[in-house]
Design brief:
Blueprint: H1 10-22, E1 32-34, H2 38-42, E2 46-51, H3 62-76, E3 81-86, H4 91-103, E4 106-112, H5 119-126, E5 130-134, H6 136-139, H7 142-150, E6 156-158, H8 166-173, E7 185-190, H9 194-205, E8 211-216, H10 223-229, E9 239-240, H11 254-267, H12 276-288, E10 297-302
Parallel strand pairs: 2-10, 3-4, 3-6, 4-5, 7-8, 7-10, 8-9
Antiparallel strand pairs: 1-2
Length: 318
């Protein structure tokens, strides 16, 4: 061996490995940028974007915030095998696979649907994740899948699809601690409602009276309201904007693709067609409808997920 490794004894290497396994933190506060768009200036609103997509190349956006305390919990329970769930293009699967490799865990992902090969799953496997494909009917009962495969594995630690959990809301709530000013409106895209619930928690902890908005990416996305409320013993105030799903989850329309292309070419910031593109479009459309008072400060949460572009690259080829 050469370099630093030539100076490490076997005991030191073991100690270094243990230190890696116990230091579960990325120590990163994502920056906030103002989007300087003539249209927003014309409408007299200030639009900002919190760049959680820059937290980590693979454990990006809300994925790190959701996983952080789950990883701490797994470590406290001495369970070194992360077991989770997602679709074939799941950013959550990829984030969990990378986090497992980075912090010394083993990982398994149940993948919804027939066996396929794609870039996202290839990266999951590169990070050491074992993939188990299951049909959509069986996939719906995640606890049964976990029990059927890992009931006798005392190291196995269950992580729900998307990381949805109370611990995830606690991680997402910390986003509010990073804000330098009070915003009039905060927007995030919604798949499980976990990030939205965390933002509400964080605002209430600081007694900020910011109006919170969720943009569900599913058709008939009003179910997100119930998903958010399960984290509270009262009814917090928040708005859901249900008309920006573009046909449903992972669906798109030419106007959405055009918006993402224009946004990227004028700001240098990528959005994906599944989550953040729909979010950005919603904010832009609401501004066009004069939904906000003049001089409103509007914050858009960029929740990462840019690998979603890989599964829809044909949409951008023309």
């Amino acid at each position: 061996m050469s370099g630093i490794y030539s100076k490490l004894s076997g005991a030191n290497i073991q100690a270094l490995s243990l230190q890696k396994h116990t230091m579960i933190d990325l120590q990163f506060h994502s920056p906030i940028e103002q989007i300087k768009h003539p249209f927003y200036q014309q409408k007299q609103v200030n639009v900002f974007i919190k760049r959680d997509d820059l937290i980590h190349p693979f454990i990006s956006g809300n994925k790190w915030r959701k996983l952080k305390y789950l990883l701490h919990q797994a470590l406290a329970k001495q369970q070194q095998h992360l077991v989770t769930f997602g679709g074939a293009y799941s950013n959550h699967l990829l984030a969990t696979a990378c986090a497992a490799a980075k912090f010394g865990f083993k990982s398994t992902g149940f993948v919804r649907g027939e066996p396929v090969q794609n870039d996202t799953l290839m990266l999951c496997k590169l990070f050491g994740m074992e993939l188990i494909f299951v049909n959509r009917g069986n996939y719906n009962n995640k606890q049964k899948l976990f029990q059927d495969h890992f009931a006798h594995d005392r190291q196995a630690f269950f992580i729900d699809e998307g990381g949805a959990s109370i611990e995830a809301t606690d991680g997402c709530a910390e986003l509010i601690d990073e804000l330098g000013i009070a915003y009039d409106h905060i927007f995030c895209a919604c798949g499980t409602g976990t990030t939205l619930a965390g933002i509400i928690k964080g605002l209430e902890k600081k007694t900020l009276h910011t109006q919170v908005h969720g943009v569900p990416v599913f058709k008939n996305g009003n179910f997100i309201r119930k998903e958010v409320l399960k984290y509270f013993d009262y009814t917090p105030a928040f708005d859901l904007h249900l008309d920006y799903h573009f046909g449903g989850y992972a669906k798109s329309k030419p106007e959405l693709i055009k918006f993402i292309q224009t946004f990227a070419s004028t700001t240098g910031i990528l959005l994906d067609p599944i989550y953040t593109g729909k979010l950005g479009y919603a904010i832009h459309d609401l501004i066009q409808q004069d939904h906000f008072s003049p001089e409103s400060n509007i914050l858009m949460i960029h929740t990462g997920g840019l690998f979603g572009l890989l599964g829809m690259s044909n949409k951008f080829s023309s």
